[in-house]
């Protein structure tokens, strides 16, 4: 089965950071360094999860939470605007990814949960996180709580709540990525860099879609995150939906109007996925997840299990991040291989 780190995909992703895979980047938008002001563009306003936000200058001490959010900042070359990042130590080998220099230059503030005390100690002026990507009212850590102590918050667009309780998702996953790149481009005055990335990512996705399976050849695909009593999976608004569908698969949970949510195994069995994608992260390894799926009696008759069509993708490829387009190309190749 494919490994969670794919050299070819990461090489293309690395090229995207520098050139947008074909899009031009001006010399001032090269590697390293922070945003360069280009003539009084402030104040700027953006829309973030339905809220209009104004910035009179670029934040200088951003704290990010988790790998995808952190790599969005690195892809935009904003290391110099960061106080550091918070991330568990189960996010894979960070020394071989396209943004390894960003990790090297930036402080790893904590391998535990982000909290108000941590960001205060870091003298943060902005926290880039999301609902269930760091922000959680139950833990007393939310944009509203940060506002009380004078710290701004930018919410990951994949995590925007949609008005139905705490359900998340207001736009297609790839559009969420592009929205955040463009918003941050405005906030930090690197709009040219953001547009180059978006153009490169769109090109990479279009090339993958051109080669992807179509029509009746599209296999039914289920994303397995974790859980044994009930599986955690992705719905319409999480990264895997666009990754699966644009790679040539039929996402069996596309009617789930949320980002990440728990469903019942009976629903999975009824929809009979022909391919299962494992989200590789956490204390339970991908091999352990595979062993569970292939030994769990209710799944014995599911096509993906019977035919051993199980793919592993890394967590950072499946949450909103600049790794999403490369994951589409990688999964598209896997689905074609299964069909041959």
Which term fits the overall shape?
Answer: globular
Order of helices and strands: HEEEHEHEHEEHEHHEEHEEHEHHEHH
Instruction: Give the tally of β-strands.
Output: 14
Give the structural class.
Answer: alpha/beta
Let me know the largest β-sheet. 6 strands, parallel
Strand content: 15-25%
Mean pLDDT: 90
Low-confidence runs: 1-38
Helix content: 25-40%
What would you give as the CATH superfamily of the largest domain? Nitrogenase molybdenum iron protein domain
Q: Which features does this protein show?
A:
340 residues, alpha/beta, Rossmann fold, six-stranded parallel β-sheet, four-stranded parallel β-sheet, 37% helix, globular, disordered N terminus
How does this structure look, described?
This protein is 37% helix and 17% strand. With 340 residues, it is of the alpha/beta class. The protein folds into two domains: 7-203, 3-Layer(aba) Sandwich (Rossmann fold); 212-339, Rossmann fold. Strands 3, 4, 5, 6, 7 and 8 form a six-stranded parallel sheet that branches. It has a four-stranded parallel sheet with strand order 11-9-13-14, sandwiched between helices. Strands 1-2 form a two-stranded antiparallel sheet. Strand 3, helix 2 (67-75) and strand 4 (82-86) form a beta-alpha-beta unit. The model is unreliable at 1-38 (pLDDT under 50). Keywords: Signal. This is ABC transporter substrate-binding protein. Residues 61-340 form the Fe/B12 periplasmic-binding domain. Belongs to the bacterial solute-binding protein 8 family.
């Amino acid at each position: 089965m494919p490994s969670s780190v794919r050299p070819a995909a990461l090489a293309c992703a690395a090229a995207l950071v520098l050139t947008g895979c074909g899009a031009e980047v001006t010399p001032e938008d090269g590697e390293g360094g922070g945003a360069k002001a280009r003539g009084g563009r402030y104040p700027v306003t953006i829309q973030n999860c339905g809220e209009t936000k104004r910035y009179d200058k670029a934040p200088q001490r951003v704290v990010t939470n988790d790998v995808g959010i952190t790599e969005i900042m690195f892809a935009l070359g904003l290391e110099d605007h960061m106080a550091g990042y918070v991330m568990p130590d189960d996010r894979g080998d960070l020394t071989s990814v396209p943004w390894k220099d960003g990790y090297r230059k930036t402080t790893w503030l904590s391998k535990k949960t982000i909290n108000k005390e941590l960001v205060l100690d870091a003298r943060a002026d902005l926290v880039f996180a999301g609902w269930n990507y760091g922000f959680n009212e139950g833990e007393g850590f939310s944009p509203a709580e940060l506002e009380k102590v004078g710290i701004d918050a930018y919410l990951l667009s994949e995590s925007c709540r949609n008005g139905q309780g705490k359900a998340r998702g207001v736009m297609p996953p790839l559009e969420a990525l592009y929205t955040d790149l463009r918003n941050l481009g405005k906030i930090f005055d690197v709009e040219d860099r953001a547009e180059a990335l978006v153009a490169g990512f769109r090109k990479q996705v279009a090339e993958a879609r051109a080669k992807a399976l179509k029509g009746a050849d599209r296999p039914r695909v289920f994303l397995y995150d974790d859980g044994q009593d009930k599986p955690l999976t992705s719905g319409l608004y999480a990264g895997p939906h666009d990754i699966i569908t644009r790679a040539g698969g039929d996402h069996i949970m596309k009617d789930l109007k949320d980002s990440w949510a728990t469903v019942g195994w009976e629903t999975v069995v009824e929809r009979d996925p022909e391919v299962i994608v494992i989200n590789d992260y956490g204390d339970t390894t991908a091999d352990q997840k595979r062993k569970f799926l292939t030994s769990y009696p209710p799944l014995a008759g599911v096509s993906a299990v019977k035919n051993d069509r199980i793919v592993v993708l890394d967590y950072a490829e499946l949450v909103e991040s600049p790794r999403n387009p490369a994951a589409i190309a990688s999964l598209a190749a896997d689905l074609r291989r299964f069909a041959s």
